[in-house]
């Protein structure tokens, strides 16, 4: 496996500077944001996809530093009920797939998306319970009339370009857990897999180790991001928490740098079980720690992750 970083973290740096930062930290790979929610601070897929000189500059900048590109990421909501937002995110996705093919990158990361409750909706509607029965009606429409037809079409498009899609499970979107990830793959195309981010699973009460075993070879990419659960706030209010991420003291959970939500034993087990299901790709640092600065969080995460990868490569870790 390789250690890497999602370089949108260094959006204030130039592309070359961000690559240098990753290299200096001992990482082997970078994940590049190309549009939609991650933004275009380093690469705008729609701008460069037909610019061979620009593509060559990207490729040469990465290669000259001995790095690889683990994935291009354009996390968005192409199912958004606002047609303008849906189109913008879809166009970013299409351009990102085309750019990935030209760069020789086999994985594009995004979200499944979430529609509204009907064709007349203004905002996405994420269903969280089966009653009243209206919710099940909404969910059936979202999946069968919107999500599955859309992703079947994108699966065919990606197959033509030799690119696979890694859907990041996240509450607020139709794919948010193991069974919804596997459902989309089963019903829309087997080149649709998962960007495995344990941080989004922890706060839902899921066991990432068991999720890896269930997802198996559908895992196309992995994020290294941790979550700290606040037992008192969960005891009072549960895990569904709509308070601002900056309200750390009162939230049920907050995202943390790897090792600051769960101990090394968990992360050792995660790396080992990923290997057992056949994953040989990158584990990419995604820093969203509201307590640590970018530099502190990234430096600690890189040191922690590099240590795990080194131990795993030396055969010092075993999951049982």
From TrEMBL:
User: Could you read off the lineage of the organism from its UniProt record?
Assistant: Bacteria, Bacillati, Bacillota, Bacilli, Bacillales
| Isomerase is among the record's keywords | yes
Q: Which residues form the Xylose isomerase-like TIM barrel domain?
A: 20-305
Show the GO MF annotations. Answer: isomerase activity
Name of the protein in its database record: Sugar phosphate isomerase/epimerase
Q: Which UniProt keywords apply?
A: Isomerase
What superkingdom does the record give? Bacteria
* UniProt cross-references to SUPFAM superfamilies, sorted A to Z: Xylose isomerase-like
The keyword Isomerase is assigned to this record: yes
